[in-house]
Structure prediction request, 496 residues.
Amino acid sequence: MAQSEQEILAGLAEIVNEETGLDPEAVQSDKAFTDDLDIDSLSMMTIVVNAEEKFGVRIPDDEVKNLRTVGDAVTFIKNNQA
Amino acid sequence: MSTERRVVVTGLGATTPLGGTITQTWDAILAGTSGARPLTQDWVQEYDLPVTFAATIHTSPEEVLSKVECRRMDPSAQYAMVASREAWADAGSPEVDPDRFMVAIGTGMGGVNTLLDQWDNLREKGVRRVFPLTVPMIMPNSSSGNVSLALGARAGAHTAVSACASGAESMALAMDQIRLGRADIVIAGGTEAAIHPLPFAGFAQMQALSKRNDDPAGASRPYDTGRDGFVMGEGAGVIVLESEEHARARGARIYAELSAAGMSADAHHITAPEPEGAGASRAMVEAVKRAGLTPADIVHINAHATSTPVGDVAEANAIRRAFGDATDGMCVTGTKSMTGHLLGAAGALEALFTILSVHHRIAPATINIEELDPAIALDVVRGEHRTLPDGDIAALNNSFGFGGHNVALTVKSI
Prediction:
């Protein structure tokens, strides 16, 4: 069940692409969702919910603000996967 | 009224059951094509709906807009966006002062598909699966807001909501805003995407829809003795309106003048038209008077004519009540015989047809009339299109909506 960071990153890039149209290649670990990828809070909510479904994790609303970069999200998902 | 700023039409756009553009739609109108077709959605069988067809959109917005745009807008706003982009391009995509550029797009129901789909999501999958953009997709001003955002119109974004008169009322409002000096150029029109089982069932339950399931293309038949209700349609119609001064200064191509509007409310019944047509007639009289014209100047009426047994007669009565013997000089067309009833977009789309009729001097024929109802004392165009006279001409477009709303627009040749 547990996926590698690389697999999570690729899956996340797919979700971001679906929501925003951003090139999946642009979704790299060091990129910040807001400052680098220009993702607003509403799109972020959709990405979070789709990520929950895809990776089988629960990302509480309070946790979302701590996910500043793509890498933060990958780490959170990896640490919380069943 | 002659001292008022003249307001002219410089761009047209539409996405309808007959075509993905206004050109394609108008060609289909002149060819006498019906946009009604059997519904293929599972819900028709699932809910055992008594009506199994509608005039569904010809070209999916997904073929025109990006995937992301489609995800973030209800179909009603998607249609408005497609039509607005076409109209804006048709007007030459002019460089304008954003603070003098406005949007006015009306709708009957707004994002009804999103509202009901997200309600299903909430009940079946829980709150986490409710799309975060649900509210801005449901709101009736979603179309005007999204178009304003996409094209950078900052003078204002307005939304008239008056059921099936919404599109026409938005154009009237846009014209007024230019005359009040609040804008020089406005994208105006109407949109609707309500082919969803709930509104569909609601209209069916009120016995408003034609049940001619074995012949969808023949179902919308305004003025025919065999008419039995309207055919639900969807889509959007949008025009670019400008002060004449602004249009001339940039050398824009001008289709026609949107000269005046007349508006009234029946205060009679929430859905039934006032049988003698007093309210509708007042709107028509006002539209002609405000245009500085007399009834003898009106050569053509694009009628509301939804193909309901009561409504078509009430409108015919209202026209005669408004114009008396001068009615005989007006040829009348019911283009809903081809497009179906686009609800909040109907008035807008039919205003586009009226503009094209004046511009090309052609009144399209109403289709599906096998036997003209003797209660209709009008010169109905059927069989062949009618050529409109040379010289200065004017035409009227009627739109009426549940709630008792009546809107008449006057279009003049230029």
About this structure: The CA atoms of residues 9 and 255 of chain B lie 6 Å apart. DSSP finds 14 helices and 15 strands in chain B.
